[in-house]
Write a structure and sequence with these properties.
Blueprint: E1 3-4, E2 7-10, E3 15-20, E4 34-41, E5 52-58, E6 67-72, H1 74-77, E7 83-93, E8 96-111
Parallel strand pairs: 1-8, 2-8
Antiparallel strand pairs: 3-6, 4-5, 4-7, 5-6, 7-8
Length: 118
């Protein structure tokens, strides 16, 4: 079942979101053999819009813990125009888009920063 959550990103900041993935019974999901993809853009229907990607990794480098980290480097976020975007996160088996599960979606608000830390 896909969950929904809104996120905020400040331009120029390194940011990381940690997701705890659980099954339908609430037990930690073993992510062994899976990869993840997390992307965002201005709208779901804008096929020619720029698409941005989070880096993904398993928490503590151990997929059995059910933790997935989404990371956006400050140098990347600094170049993203401020505004609202839509995003989704998929778990992929063997990197195949044909065998995937959407686990999270929502909106991201990219907000300007007054002070640059880069």
């Amino acid at each position: 079942m896909t969950k929904y959550s809104d996120l905020q990103v400040h331009q120029g900041e390194d940011i990381s979101f940690r997701l705890e993935i659980v099954d339908e019974n609430g037990a930690v999901k073993d992510l062994t053999g899976l990869n993840a993809r997390a992307r965002f853009r201005k709208s779901y229907s804008s096929s020619n819009a720029t698409t941005y990607s989070f880096s993904t990794s398993f928490g503590a480098n151990d997929p059995t813990l059910g933790l997935l980290d989404l990371t956006l480097n400050g140098e990347v976020s600094d170049d993203i125009p401020r505004g609202r975007y839509v995003y989704d996160v998929f778990l992929l088996r063997d990197g195949s888009l044909n065998i995937s599960e959407k686990i999270l979606e929502g909106q991201i608000e990219v907000m300007p920063s007054v002070t640059s830390i880069i």
